[in-house]
Specification:
Bound molecules: shikimate-3-phosphate
CATH superfamily: P-loop containing nucleotide triphosphate hydrolases
Strand order of the largest sheet: 2-3-1-4-5
Function: Catalyzes the specific phosphorylation of the 3-hydroxyl group of shikimic acid using ATP as a cosubstrate.
Order of helices and strands: EHEHHEHEHHEH
Number of domains: 1
Strand content: 5-15%
EC number: 2.7.1.71
Helix content: 55-70%
CATH class: Alpha Beta
Number of helices: 7
Protein name: Shikimate kinase
Cofactor: Mg(2+)
CATH architecture: 3-Layer(aba) Sandwich
GO molecular function, one term: shikimate kinase activity
Structural class: alpha/beta
Number of strands: 5
Distance between the termini: 12 Å
Length: about 170
């Protein structure tokens, strides 16, 4: 059984949608960030503080490589998982890739009260999200089998569309 892998920016709803989708498909749900936290016993912000983004990306790569070798999972990935080409190859080979496409406005809305995202500690989170999107949107698109719009749509509707198109 193929994996279903969710990619997209912070605030796209990957964890919420992934959990619902896994329930519908009766498959286990994994979240690469949670897996990193379990393996290290440290939160993502602490890993960024101690090891920097580079250290986090190494850990993220190890987790993605391992999880993509498994079968029959729904996997939510961190927003920057597509940055490395070895990750993109692993994700492509690891299953059906679903890009949860989301506007910066919606991302801002969904991440506003969340302190768990070190990249959004910057003075201007909107500018940060726009810069990240400019670089990453083409990368999400280039590995996606399915692109699903999430703006102004309840997670259940997004899940139904993914189920229809898988
Ligand atoms: C990141 C997104 C986060 C997390 C880390 C870095 C990014 O995951 O992996 O803070 O580079 O966009 P979410 O996309 O689940 O917020």
């Amino acid at each position: 059984m193929q994996n279903t892998i969710l990619v997209g920016p912070m605030g796209a709803g990957k964890s919420t949608i992934g959990r619902l989708l896994a329930k519908e498909l009766r498959l286990p749900f994994k979240d690469s960030d949670k897996e990193i936290e379990q393996r290290t016993g440290a939160s993502i912000p602490l890993i960024f503080d101690v090891e920097g983004e580079q250290g986090f990306r190494e850990r993220e790569h190890a987790v993605i490589a391992d999880l993509c070798r498994l079968e029959g999972l729904v996997l939510a990935t961190g927003g920057g998982a597509v940055l490395r080409d070895d990750n993109r190859r692993a994700l492509r080979a690891g299953g059906r890739v679903v890009y949860l496409c989301t506007s910066v406005e919606q991302q801002l809305d969904r991440t506003a009260r969340d302190r768990n995202r070190p990249l959004l500690r910057a003075a201007d989170p909107e500018a940060t999200l726009r810069q990240l999107m400019a670089v990453r949107d083409p990368l999400y698109r280039c590995i996606a089998d399915i692109i699903v719009e999430t703006d102004e749509r309840p997670p259940r509707l997004v899940v139904m569309e993914i189920l229809d198109r898988l």
